Amino acid sequence: MITSKTIATKLSNNKHLPLWFWILISFLTALSVLSFTFYLIEYTQLTVAAEKDQRPLILQRNLLLQQSGILQSNWLKTLNPLAKKIQGDLIWSNQQQKGFMRFVNLPKLSSGQTYHLWIYDLEQNLKKPISATQFQAEPHNKKEFLVEIFPEKTVKKPYKFILALETEGQAQQILLLAQP
What is the CATH number of the domain that holds 98? Predict the structure, then answer.
């Protein structure tokens, strides 16, 4: 029968752990530190690359904001749970026929899913919105994320912008709405 007294006796007889045990612990610790360091380096490089890719868009957005006649609106969330943490806004220039969407906390999508911006125009068929931009979120970009808007047709009097999540073989889910 094993009692606490016999365990204590065995431990007192083996005061020193074997050398191989300490070598194994040292190796595992070094491996953990090394793998964590590589993860941080890779994540930092991806974040820096994403921010560099966004700089031209940030500059173009700022220039567009200085123009007159710009439509601007914050995103309004729908009841869709995917939109719960998303923040951002949208700007649009009728004159230049382009704009920008800005997002924070845009969820990463699975394969076969895309975000799709639809623009409703008062001078077009109200039941058929204009397809603007399709994109996927960049998973390594946790900060501000910009997407340029290029509609398929000329937009004359936009009154509503809808961001939908589209999945192959399923109906689209409306996530966000902007009404300038």
Answer: 2.60.40
